[in-house]
Amino acid sequence: MRTFATGVCVATTYRDTSGGRRHDAVTVNSLGSISLDPPLVSLSFRKESAFLADLLETGRWVVSILPADARDVARRFAGPRASRVSEIAFLRAKPGERTGALVLDGASWLECALAEKFDLGDHTLVVGEVLATGHDRHAPALVFVHGGYHAITDPRHVSGPGQWGEAL
């Protein structure tokens, strides 16, 4: 699977506690488009994921599709929950209007409500109805392939380390 290029996203959710709302964010590359009518997307998480537990509790999340210049954000939220929690305070984001989960600045995004969940092997697939969207048409996409981050740009115009394409 390391030869299959995937988009890089940060999923966010939260849990309301007696001490207030506790946000969480995690880097994911399992975003899939399921349906256009109604608009449905999917994500997959390890069954024992604390992020998944919070998502199932609230039934709300945001997927921020990262632009190529957000490699550092992707790396910071790819680790265990203990390291991610300290990074939340430094995340440039605002609560989504429809879900309350964090929407990352500069990213394309989908606000989602839980529609279905399926336990499959050692993962749980969650299907979300898309409630709201936003995007940045000009930002090149960030993808993950062969163990590294790369920018997707027009291959007719760029070439170089970390980018795909050849100058024609």
TrEMBL record:
Group of enzyme by EC: oxidoreductase
Oxidoreductase as UniProt keyword: yes
Taxonomic lineage: Bacteria, Bacillati, Actinomycetota, Actinomycetes, Pseudonocardiales
PANTHER family linked: FLAVIN REDUCTASE (PTHR30466), FMN REDUCTASE (NADH) RUTF (PTHR30466:SF1)
Pfam families xref list: Flavin_Reduct
Alphabetized GO MF terms: FMN binding; riboflavin reductase (NADPH) activity
Domain of life: Bacteria
This protein's record includes keyword NAD: no
InterPro entries referenced in this protein's UniProt entry, alphabetically: Flavin_Rdtase-like_dom, NADH-dep_flavin_reductase, Split_barrel_FMN-bd
Entry EC number(s): 1.-.-.-
Stretches assigned to the Flavin reductase like domain: 1-151
Organism: Amycolatopsis mongoliensis
Name under which the protein is recorded: Flavin reductase family protein
Keyword field: Oxidoreductase
